[in-house]
Amino acid sequence: MPKRDREATRARLLETARLRFAREGYDATSVRDVARDAGVDATLIFRYFGSKKQLFDEATATAPGGPDLLAGPPEELVARMAREVVFHDWSTYGGEHPLLAMLRSSAHDDTRQRIREEVCATYVRALEDLAEGADAGLRAELLSAWLVGIGILRSVVGTPALAAAEAADLAPYVETVASGLLGRPMSGEVSTQNGESSGT
């Protein structure tokens, strides 16, 4: 098989695996399911990824936010996090942030550890650096839990008010909660992907 075809097949397998793992979790997804969705033989998964576990790890590799999340005015950090977790277009992950998709597989110790590392390395640490006063770590974790909880209720549970909410609807609450927990003024505007802003 030509290199270009191999790369295309590998990319298709990752795409279908992301959707399967996001919707059903690790245990309920089989190698045969992913291969059937991609229209290939299941042996190709082992050839390209080695195992179902390695396929899962690569398919849910998120690098959430990364440097882009930390770029920009500090007072807008929480709004950028809200955009990342709640309003970002994660269509390749079944419409959900890959972090939320991993929660469906959190019965596994290594997956829980990955979630903990990614949340702490990206969200909690950045918020802790912004927090003023005592108990900065606790308040950073509380705010992170609140943001992740919004994402879960909106896209996983599908509660009606949050599922229907726009960025502008959340902006005043993001500003109030973030400012209260971090002990400093924070913006509630949640910028959209094209650079426009909505909020107060």
UniProtKB/TrEMBL annotation:
Keyword DNA-binding belongs to the record: yes
Ranges of the DNA-binding region feature: 30-49
Pfam families: TetR_C_16, TetR_N
Annotated HTH tetR-type domain residues: 7-67
UniProt keyword terms in alphabetical order: DNA-binding
Superkingdom to which the source organism belongs: Bacteria
Protein name: TetR/AcrR family transcriptional regulator
Organism annotation: Nonomuraea spiralis
